[in-house]
Every structure is written in structure tokens, then in C-alpha cells.
From TrEMBL:
Domain of life according to the entry: Eukaryota
Compartment annotation: Peroxisome
InterPro entries recorded: 3-OHacyl-CoA_DH_NAD-bd, 3HC_DH_C, 6-PGluconate_DH-like_C_sf, ClpP/crotonase-like_dom_sf, Enoyl-CoA_hydra/iso, NAD(P)-bd_dom_sf
Keywords: Fatty acid metabolism, Isomerase, Lipid metabolism, Lyase, Multifunctional enzyme, NAD, Oxidoreductase, Peroxisome
Name used for this protein in its record: Enoyl-CoA hydratase/3-hydroxyacyl-CoA dehydrogenase
Gene Ontology BP term (one): fatty acid beta-oxidation
């Protein structure tokens, strides 16, 4: 695996918390990193019109480290002692950020509960002089909790305020479960916590979470004025307010509803609810204690998994030796106006990039343009965009059936049918018609990219840009580098991904790249189980219970069974030793049950069709020579089914690591969550195995399945075995 400068990756710091027993080779670098951070933290203090103005300047986002916390507390204490000071304003010196939350790199599993009154918001609430939080930008998690500990809040309308802690597997632990309900009511407070979505300063003002709104350039003067106007003898602390809580009867209803809403697979949701309930029934002070207890008892694997993912997502774009790309991509040519080409065009247009759509003839071109226009029309009708955005998008769209105008394009993305010769001829044309700096991307999902342009002199500019369907919705962009792709073109791919607001994962060329490659055994194992007597709907249910939006068979219907057959044939061709040659999908296609696009697949219009598919299942089992069931269908637990489908995926992910195809193991976690909707609260495919099972158990389970079935997909690969033997995590990248 290529080495990278991981000193820049905070994922490493968190990794240490996730895998405390792993002798992590980068630990010294992490320590240096936090030292540098400590030096950068600057909290300034000045007195302006008898108001102490405390400015936090801890780059990049004012995450509250223990150092920043004590610096703020010191300055507040100084202000309380300063006889020239009547009030305090707490604000940020970093544009765009008030505070992004507690410093996640400092998170460690708690060994004991702490005194909640020592938390920063409680300290601020204990100030004898009024403190006004002046918010301009992100004010999240511990940031909002800090602001709620202040006596009052001023914000700019576009600030973003929220409590996203549940997304990290923890609960708001600095009094957020107590003060937010008391400021805006339980219903809205729980909504903010459970959706994890921030609200604007304007909405926060409407909810009375923020006392005053103002523009950025008036923030300080407004905060000073408000601070001077507060009479502390009349002030009621946020923690003790009663006036905004709902009535007893309303609360009963709200809690009954919330009981049904919380997801048992994400225990932090129930714990947040427990803390809120405790505070509402027993009062804010006791509520703080309950919150601390719930925080202490958070489900540690879920927290580890989610925090791992937070840093993993931010690490994917850090690729060694890739130069900065200082240009913007302003124009993209899309070859092929079908589902994928159309989706890519829409993604570009939505982000202000000009699109030239090319088709082979006028009829196809008109159809492609029409589909794109209809998508924007529907967005306009549903008020997802306004007229100005609609006009801008369509003005940026042109169509052609020749290569006229391609000379000036910044980037071209080919999205024609998956036929090697067709793709080869497109790239031959592109090498003639595009300028020498143009990025030449292919959206193939299965074809070896090296083979597409083996004889062209523009090979260094050819890159895989694999979008996931629907391309304008799915958040992942797989960027595939061949042995010839230059670092500059990788930089350009990363830039395109940024402009399209997608998360990139860079992977070296191989059949299936990262996502299709690691997930090909998933479909295989599902077919294997059906042939051994487990019903597709039972399998779908188990995977849904695991946290996937839909199970593998329902997913096949959505993607299209003909597409599925084509993809699995290509994967079977490349990885025949560990592919399961099940016939069910082909039998379905032969029966014209192609999935949702024709209204019939494993399901009929999304509804089960037990009778309709019974004979087809039997036919598949016959073709497989009616293998002996592993056990009685009723004896399979959800966990059995989940492991049979997912452990081979972990195994394949480990092979991808073994073959050095990704820059860091955690890229596969991000790819699985963003490309396959693997449940994020499980941390991604490799983190799931690491955190919830461990390398050794993963190895043993796979080995047992291999011994029982003789199927190669279950045979643990070398990398996995090495990790298990050496008691290392799978994320260690041995
Ligand atoms: N702690 C430590 N580092 C953080 C951080 C945090 N709370 N928030 C962001 N960072 C780091 C990121 O890891 C990233 O570091 P690198 O450059 O080394 O990769 C850097 O700050 C910039 O972050 P982004 O790339 O995410 O920047 P952005 O502008 O795209 O997004 C943001 C900004 C919306 C604030 C986003 O960073 C974010 O959502 N941050 C986390 C917010 C959050 O979850 N807060 C709750 C924290 S937990 C808490 O507060 C517990 C509690 O109850 C007290």
C-alpha cells in the first residue's frame, strides 16, 4: 500500500481510540499534531464599552479541545474579576465558525462519570456577569451547548445551529439534552437531535433559541448592546426555564410518539430521549446528572464506528503526491444521454457547470435533453429550485450529435453502453477532438479502463469517473486511476468531485473498482442461500434489519435484473474462483421479470409475489442440483443471514487492501456507506467487522463457513489471516 502523509489525517487520532489495543504506528505523529494545534489556539480578550470581548481562534473550526475550554474559562473568570467590565461577549475569530463542537480527536471511552457542572456551558452559566454568545457561522454540538450556557444569543440569519451528536454515536453531553428543550420545547429539541440537521440563524430566532438577529457587520455591536441591557437579577438560566416546555398532557403524547420513533439499532437515540425525559420530570440539575450517566453508557461500538466514519469521510480526498488543482471545471461534455449520462449532466448543471450532451443521432439527443429538462421542471414544480436556478441550469445545457465545440471543454465524461469496442472508438474520437488538457473520463462500471485506451497517446489524461445511479443523487464518486493516469488528472478528478459536492474515493484500476468489486460476493452469497432453501424475502428482511434501506433482492429490482446479470457476468469472468454461479437472476430475466422498470421482478411493483416467484426459485435450485440446505430455513437467525452475505464482502475488501488498490482501508468504509448504503451506524464494511466482531472472530466465522460449504468466497484471504494471526485490526493496513 502506498504510504501517505497521515500526519494530516485526524482519522489516525480517532483510530487510536477505536482500536486502543492496536500498536498504531502513527501515534507519535498524532501527538505532534495535537501539540501544533495547541499552539495555534488563540483566545483573545479585550474590553470594549465596558464589555469584555472574548474571541476564540482555534483553527480550523474552533473545536473545543481541553485547552480551548480552559482558555475560555480563564478569560471569563478574568472578566468576572475585572471591575471595568459589566458584561461579556463570546465570539469567534474564525470566519464561518462559532464553534463546530467538542474536539472529536480528544474523544476517549469514559472510564467514570464526571461532574456535569464542570462542563464549559455550566461554567458559563455560573458567571455573575451576563455573557452573550455572538454567533456567525457553524454553531454545532458542544458549540450550541456552549451558546445555550450563555445568558443570551445573537446570530446572523445564515448561521447554522444544531446538535448532531447522535451522528457520532454519542448524545449531547454538555447539557444540550436539558437546555435545548427548555429553550424551544421538547418536540422541536428532539427533532433537532434526531434529524441531526442544523437550522438557520433565522429559524433559531423564530424558535426563540436566538434572542436577536443581525448581519455579520453588526454582530459585535448588537451583542455588546444586548449584553449591557441584561439585568442578571431578573435572569433565569436556560437550565431552569419552565415557560417554554409543553404542558404535561402534550409531553405525554410527545414522549409516546418518540418512544416509537427511536431506532433500537442506534442506542444513542433512546439515551438522548431518556436524558430529556429525566430533565423534564426531575428538573434541569438532575437532568444534567442523568445526561452524564446516559453519556457514560453510550454503546461504545456504535460510537467508535460513527466517529471512525466522520474522519474517514474527510480523509478520502487526501492523496499523496497529487498537486493542488487551482482551476475550476467550467464545462463538461457528456457522451450518451441515457440514465447515467443524463444523471451526470444533471449533477453538473445543478452545480453551475456547463454541459454539452452528445448523442449518436438527433432522436436520441432530443430524448436525452428532454429527460434532463423534465427533471428540472419537476424540481421547479416541487419548489426544490426557483425559476432563476431553473433558467440558469437550462441555459447551461446544449446538445450535439457531432464533436463540434469539444475543443474548448475542460472535461468529457463518456457514459455509453458497456461495450468495449464502442468505448474504444469514443476515446479515439476524443483524443482527436479535445484539447491537450481536457480530462477524459469514463463512467464504465465494469470494463477494464486500461483496455479502453491502450493504444492512445492521451492515456495519461484518461480516468475512471464512476458515478452511482441516480448520478445526481448518490454522494459517492469513484475515481479510478490506471497505471498511466497522471497525478494532475487525479487532482482534476478530485476538483470535479468537490464541485459536484460528492465524496471521492480514489482506487486503482481493477474489474469492479472498489464498490462493485467488494460487493460482488454479496449477490453471490444471496443466490447461494436461496439455492439452499432460504427465501429471498427472508434474506431481504434480515439485511433490512441490519440497516440497509432495502435487501439485495429488492435492490436488484430497483437496479434492473438485466443490468445485474451483465454486471455479475463481468465479475464472474474476473473473479471466477470465488463467484457463485447462481441462476436465479438469469431465470428471472428469461421470464422478463426485469424489475421495477417493467413493474415485475422479485416483487411486483415493490410488493411481495410469493406465488409468482416460487417456481422460479425451484428452477434455480434444480439448476444448482438441489443442494442440501445448510440448515432448516426457520433456524436461520438474522445474524446468520447477515454474516453469510456480508463476511465475504469483508473478505473481498481485505483482498482489495492486499492488492494495494486503495490509499487507506477506511476508503472502503466510505465507499460502502456512500455507494451501497451500508448502514453508517455500523461504520462501513471493514470497520463493522473490526469494531463489532474483531479480525480474529471474522476470520474464524469465515473459515467455518468455508469448511462447511467449500465455497471459495468464504475462504479467508491472506490479509485477513495475517491481521487475525497478529491480533491487528483490519483497518491497520498491515
Ligand atoms: N472536532 C475535531 N475536528 C473537527 C471537528 C470537531 N468537532 N469538526 C471539524 N473538524 C475538523 C475536520 O476533521 C477537518 O479536519 P481535516 O482538515 O484535518 O480533515 C476540519 O476540521 C475541517 O472540517 P470539514 O472538512 O468537515 O469542513 P467543512 O467546512 O466541510 O464542514 C463542519 C464544517 C460542518 C463544522 C463539519 O466539520 C462538521 O460537521 N463538524 C462536526 C460537527 C459535530 O459533529 N459537532 C459535534 C461534536 S461532538 C460534541 O460537541 C459533543 C458534545 O456534546 C460536547
Amino acid at each position: 500500500m502506498q504510504t501517505i502523509d497521515r500526519s494530516k489525517s485526524r482519522a489516525d487520532v480517532v483510530f487510536k481510540h477505536i482500536h486502543p489495543n492496536v500498536d498504531h504506528k502513527l501515534e507519535p505523529t498524532s501527538i505532534q499534531h495535537s501539540d501544533v494545534k495547541a499552539q495555534e489556539e488563540v483566545v483573545t480578550y479585550e474590553v470594549n464599552k465596558q464589555v469584555a470581548v472574548i474571541r476564540m481562534g482555534s483553527k480550523p473550526v474552533n473545536a473545543v479541545s481541553s485547552h480551548l475550554k480552559s482558555s475560555i474559562e480563564e478569560k471569563v473568570s478574568e472578566a468576572n474579576k475585572d471591575t471595568n467590565v459589566k458584561a461579556i461577549v463570546l465570539m469567534s475569530a474564525i470566519p464561518g465558525f462559532f464553534i463546530a463542537g467538542a474536539d472529536i480527536t480528544e474523544f476517549k471511552p469514559k472510564t467514570k462519570t464526571e461532574d456535569p457542572t464542570t462542563r464549559l456551558p455550566s461554567r458559563l452559566e455560573g458567571s455573575t456577569k451576563p455573557i452573550v454568545a455572538a454567533i456567525d457561522g457553524f454553531c454545532l454540538g458542544g458549540g450550541l451547548e456552549t451558546a445555550m450556557g450563555c445568558t443570551a444569543r445573537v446570530a446572523t440569519p445564515n448561521s447554522r445551529l444544531g446538535l448532531p451528536e447522535l451522528n457520532l454515536g454519542i448524545i449531547p453531553g454538555w447539557g444540550g439534552t436539558q437546555r435545548l428543550p427548555r429553550l424551544i420545547g421538547v418536540k422541536k429539541a428532539m427533532e433537532l437531535m434526531l434529524t441531526m440537521k442544523p437550522i438557520s440563524g433565522k429559524e433559531a430566532h423564530d424558535l426563540k433559541l436566538v434572542d436577536q438577529l443581525c448581519e455579520s457587520n453588526q454582530l459585535l455591536s448588537t451583542a455588546i448592546q444586548l449584553a449591557l441591557s441584561i439585568d442578571m437579577s431578573k435572569n433565569i438560566k436556560s437550565l431552569h426555564r419552565q415557560d417554554r416546555l409543553e404542558s404535561k398532557a402534550e409531553l405525554e403524547q410527545i414522549f409516546a410518539h418518540l418512544e416509537k420513533m427511536v431506532d433500537p439499532r442506534q442506542p444513542q437515540q433512546r439515551q438522548a430521549l431518556n436524558a430529556v425525559k429525566a430533565g423534564v420530570t426531575r428538573g434541569g440539575d438532575e437532568g444534567l446528572v442523568a445526561e452524564e450517566e446516559e453519556s457514560f453508557n453510550v454503546h461504545k461500538p456504535t460510537a467508535k464506528a460513527l466517529q471512525h466514519l466522520f474522519f474517514a469521510e474527510r480523509a478520502t480526498s487526501k492523496i499523496p503526491n497529487v498537486p493542488a488543482y487551482n482551476k475550476k471545471i467550467n464545462s463538461v461534455g457528456v457522451i450518451g444521454g441515457g440514465t447515467m449520462g443524463g444523471g451526470i449532466a444533471i449533477a453538473c448543471l445543478e452545480n453551475g457547470i456547463k454541459v454539452t450532451l452528445k448523442e449518436v443521432n438527433q432522436k436520441f439527443l432530443d430524448a436525452g435533453l428532454e429527460r434532463i429538462k423534465n427533471t428540472f421542471k419537476s424540481k421547479l414544480e416541487r419548489k426544490r429550485i426557483n425559476q432563476k436556478q431553473f433558467d440558469a441550469a437550462l441555459n447551461n445545457l446544449t446538445g450535439t450529435i457531432s464533436y463540434e465545440g469539444f475543443q474548448t471543454l475542460d472535461c468529457v465524461i463518456e457514459a455509453v453502453l458497456e461495450i468495449v469496442d464502442l468505448k474504444k472508438s469514443v476515446f479515439k474520437d476524443l483524443s482527436k477532438h479535445c484539447n491537450k488538457e481536457c480530462i477524459l473520463g469514463t463512467n464504465t462500471s465494469t470494463i477494464d479502463i486500461e483496455s479502453i485506451a491502450s493504444d492512445l497517446d492521451c492515456r495519461d489524461r484518461i480516468i475512471g469517473l464512476h458515478f452511482f445511479s441516480p448520478a445526481n443523487v448518490m454522494p459517492l464518486l469513484e475515481i479510478i486511476r490506471t497505471s498511466h493516469t497522471s497525478n494532475e488528472i487525479i487532482a482534476a478528478g478530485l476538483q470535479l468531485s468537490k464541485q459536484l459536492r460528492k465524496t471521492p474515493v480514489v482506487v486503482k484500476n481493477c474489474v469492479g473498482f472498489a464498490v462493485n468489486r467488494i460487493f460482488f460476493p454479496y449477490g453471490g452469497a444471496a443466490g447461494f442461500l436461496v439455492d439452499r432453501g432460504v427465501h429471498p424475502y427472508r434474506i431481504d428482511k434480515a439485511l433490512k434489519n441490519f440497516g440497509f434501506g432495502v435487501g439485495p433482492f429488492r435492490m436488484s429490482d430497483i437496479v434492473g435484473l438485466d443490468v445485474g446479470v451483465m454486471t455479475s457476468n463481468s465479475m464472474k469472468g474476473a473473479y471466477s474462483d470465488r463467484a457463485y454461479d447462481g441462476q436465479l437472476k438469469q431465470i428471472m430475466v428469461d421470464q422478463k421479470r426485469l424489475g421495477d422498470k417493467v413493474g415485475r421482478g422479485y416483487y411486483i411493483k415493490g410488493k411481495p409475489d410469493e406465488e409468482g416467484i416460487a417456481d422460479l426459485i425451484k428452477a434455480s435450485q434444480n439448476r444448482a442440483n438441489n443442494p442440501k440446505p445448510l440448515k432448516n430455513q426457520n433456524e436461520f437467525t438474522d445474524a446468520d443471514i447477515q454474516e453469510i452475505l456480508l463476511l465475504p464482502v469483508v473478505n473481498e475488501a481485505c483482498r482489495v487492501v492486499q492488492e494495494n488498490l486503495v490509499y487507506r482501508v477506511s476508503d472502503l468504509d466510505v465507499a460502502s456507506v456512500m455507494g451501497m448504503n451500508f448502514p453508517r451506524f455500523r461504520g462501513g464494511i471493514v470497520a463493522w467487522a473490526d469494531v463489532f466482531l474483531g479480525a480474529k472472530k471474522t476470520f474464524e466465522k469465515l473459515d467455518r463457513l468455508y469448511q462447511e460449504t467449500g465455497m471459495e468466497m468464504f475462504k479467508p484471504c491472506e490479509y485477513l489471516k495475517k491481521c487475525a494471526d497478529n491480533n491487528k485490526s483490519l483497518e491497520s493496513g498491515l
